[in-house]
Write a structure and sequence with these properties.
alpha/beta, Molybdenum Cofactor Biosythetic Enzyme, Chain A, Molybdopterin biosynthesis moeA protein, domain 3, six-stranded mixed β-sheet, 26 strands, binds adenosine monophosphate, binds magnesium ion
Length: about 425
Amino acid sequence: MTEQDFIAASCADDYDPDSMPVDKARHFIRAYLTPVDTQQCVPLRDALGRVLAADILSPCNVPNHDNAAMDGYAISGADIPTEGTASLRVIGTAFAGKPFEGAITRGECVRIMTGAVMPQGADTVLMQEHVRAEEDRIVFGPGARPGQNRRRAGEDLRLGQVVLPAGHLMRPADLGLVASLGIGEVRVFRRLRVAFFSTGDELASIGQPLAPGQVYDSNRYTLYGMLARLGVDIIDMGVVRDDPALLEQALLEASRCADVIFTSGGVSVGEADYMKALLNKLGQVVFWKIAMKPGRPLAYGKIGSAHYFGLPGNPVSVMVTFYQFVREALLVLMGQAHPRPLPLLSVTCTSPIKKAPGRTEFQRGILSQDADGVWTVRVTGDQGSGILRSMSEANCFIVLPEACGNVEPGATVQVQLFDGIV
Ligand code: AMP
Ligand code: MG
């Protein structure tokens, strides 16, 4: 992407009502993102939520030996009768962690517990429920399959196999997976440093009394929450007045200490003029009207080597813009080469929704089970971009694509869940 592209993208913002489509803005941003490259070795537990900087290769087979998947009797598959019954002599017991040292030959078997190493000569485990134990013998009929209930060495992971590739974001199962290889330290990318401040003469910080017309600054708290979930280092720079000199100072300071800078407020029509002049002086920034609701104004660019996102001021718009543009960008910067798009699930919507075609809408929805146990979605009520309660009550976005018009009750819509389980 060249400077010319940047200028072209910048001009696109004046074109209204057909402002910048959501996907186009996403692609534009994506072309500018270069991941952090500093790597560090961290103890395995500290890797949770971090991005791997190197492939993890399996130093061994997991499991290490063929072993029993059930409590029962280890036998040779050749001893399974095709009709009638077979009787085998029990010559020992294999416990998990305490193998049977000998070998079995035809007509013999070993009592075996789940996870115990398969004794030499045995390839099959008969479930204990399928045999009749008689003193030192077992009796059983046909039906078992040779090889049954045996876990093969390396069936989970093979020696030398890439277990997790560089660029992978570590989740709880991954910690266990790496631990199962006996690896206690992993190489990850360093954490991103993200600085943010709120702009607005009307903003008061918690602890100050509210003067008439003032509102408490809530954006720094939602931003904190969203960023903390992504596992970045957070630099909260407070509230900055709508004063070009103060804003310039704050932006320069942020660009010196952070990889990414967020501001909220000050990018909407009417307010954007001095931010535009300021950002053009400090770096390369485009101002967009995105064809979406809520969250229309968005500024994006670079100040020095820092990425800059100018988010709208309205509390719901901040969150929608964050999840629709910023989240994925941060994951790329954290080192995840190809973050998976958030899943969109189709469900029936029980509320009517008024919508004009021409922009993507992110309504706040409540996904719940109806009396028949079927999951349906309804809107939270008033969808104003200043009503933060709508985000707090919701558990999903109802994503209505650009071309979609009014939604009748009973229509299928797509939702994006707020919570994942891992
Ligand atoms: P702006 O984008 O600066 O024009 O702000 C749009 C609306 O969002 C105004 O009603 C602001 O008062 C409100 N707003 C801006 N920043 C914040 C903030 N940090 N916390 C709560 N409301 C805000
Ligand atoms: Mg403002």
